[in-house]
């Protein structure tokens, strides 16, 4: 893996905002990867120490009642992964961080062709961004223990655990849009 991590590799942290702790998200059951924020913090620390590019994605919901709506107390980044001065913050209104944000141009403008991705929700914004980035030609590593999701019923109404939802999302992406890895493969 060290050959992957060069100066053409950026860390992309998606939607790790206070909003994700609101009770609404766990209405069907608890999330998986309860230590994901700590894992993200470790990766971010090592990334900063290596002076590599970091991009923070922030969801700016256009729905006034959303926990991700700008101006609400839950819109801000969680302390574990809060951006430092000089780190890029990308605001998005769609599920993919590449839709209407200029992210692709910023990455390519800096010569970045590889992404290491962490964030929330695995089967929503993380999956949409990884699929989109893969289709744009970026080489992507997705850190499975630095992402999480929540229990949710499937299309037939069967309640799936957060780990089941997470695992299916990873299976959808691995091999075609990214390579799924554990944080221990990077740290």
List keywords for this structure.
4 helices, Cysteine hydrolase family protein, hydrolase activity, globular, Isochorismatase-like_hydrls, 8 strands, 187 residues, alpha/beta, Isochorismatase-like_dom, hydrolase
In short:
It contains four helices and eight strands; from the N terminus they run E-H-E-E-H-E-H-E-E-E-H-E. Helix 3 packs parallel to helix 4 (162-173).
How would you describe this structure to a colleague?
By secondary structure, the chain is α/β, with parallel strands linked by helices. It has one domain (9-185): 3-Layer(aba) Sandwich (Rossmann fold), CATH 3.40.50. The chain has 4 helices and 8 strands, in the order E-H-E-E-H-E-H-E-E-E-H-E. A 6-stranded parallel sheet has the order 3-2-1-4-5-8, sandwiched between helices. It has a two-stranded antiparallel ribbon with strand order 6-7. Strand 1 (9-14), helix 1 and strand 2 form a beta-alpha-beta unit. Helix 3 packs parallel to helix 4 (162-173). The model has no long low-confidence stretch (mean pLDDT 96).
């Amino acid at each position: 893996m060290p050959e992957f991590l060069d100066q053409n590799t950026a860390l992309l942290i998606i939607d790790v905002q206070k909003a994700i702790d609101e009770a609404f998200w766990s209405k069907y059951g608890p999330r998986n990867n309860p230590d994901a924020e700590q894992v993200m913090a470790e990766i971010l620390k090592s990334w900063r120490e290596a002076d590599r590019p970091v991009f923070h994605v922030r969801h700016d919901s256009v729905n006034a009642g959303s926990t991700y709506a700008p101006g609400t107390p839950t819109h801000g980044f969680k302390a574990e992964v809060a951006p430092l001065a000089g780190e890029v913050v990308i605001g998005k209104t769609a599920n993919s961080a590449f839709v209407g944000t200029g992210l692709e141009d910023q990455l390519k403008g800096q010569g970045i062709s590889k992404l290491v991705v962490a964030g929330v929700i695995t089967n929503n914004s993380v999956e949409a961004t990884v699929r989109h980035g893969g289709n744009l030609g970026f080489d992507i590593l997705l850190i499975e223990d630095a992402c999480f999701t929540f229990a949710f019923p499937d299309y037939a109404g069967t309640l799936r655990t957060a780990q089941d939802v997470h695992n299916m999302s990873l299976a959808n992406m691995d091999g075609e849009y990214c390579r799924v890895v554990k944080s221990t493969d990077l740290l």
